[in-house]
Amino acid sequence: MTWLTETRNSYDAIAAGYADETRDLLDRLLHVRAGVVLFADLVRAIGGGPVADVGCGPGHTTALLRELGADAFGIDLSPAMIEIARREHPGARFEVGSMTDLELGDASLAGVLAWWSLIYIPDEAVPGVLGQFHRVLRPDGVLAVGFHVGDESVLETTGEGDHALQAYVHHRPPSRVAGWLRDAGFTVEAEHLLNPDAPKPGAILFARRPAAPPR
């Protein structure tokens, strides 16, 4: 899958600068921070348990989840990002991995947070990724997905000259993402639209793996 390699290489190349640029991002984007807080509250309401921040980057959001009392760990495709996350947040667990094939047990998590990380997954691969999320969540487990809103794929370039690296970023209508979630077996519970009047609106969808039916 070429897009996986391109995404990993791009974030390896910009890891240090990205970590610096996003260090206080959740302090500046309070509506996005509120989504992280709500996710932590929803996990606490079901009794807590392990939470995976999938596509964690340098680990800033994982660290916030832990400050909020969640048993959170991070997974990212980029080894350079994971190296920074481990260095800056030594009390947390971080692993290199891909959301396309999570090395986690079935029904092993209380929550999955995919915070603007699904934006690198092409449409044809999204159902498989959401299937992975559904598999690793226990019944009643919580999923929160943040993403760019729109209906286009934008080629973003990082670096310069012969070392320029490229990755597509996919902008999607919330209704499309919600449809994918339902098809994967989730119940969609809430939709938060962020900055609808801005050039780059965003959205957060909160969903749940339904509790197992009584026997």
UniProtKB/TrEMBL annotation:
Location of the Methyltransferase domain: 51-141
GO biological process, alphabetically ordered: methylation
Molecular function terms, GO-annotated: methyltransferase activity
Keywords, alphabetical: Methyltransferase, Transferase
CDD domains, per database record: AdoMet_MTases
Listed InterPro entries: Methyltransf_25, SAM-dependent_MTases_sf
Protein name: SAM-dependent methyltransferase
Native species: Actinomadura livida
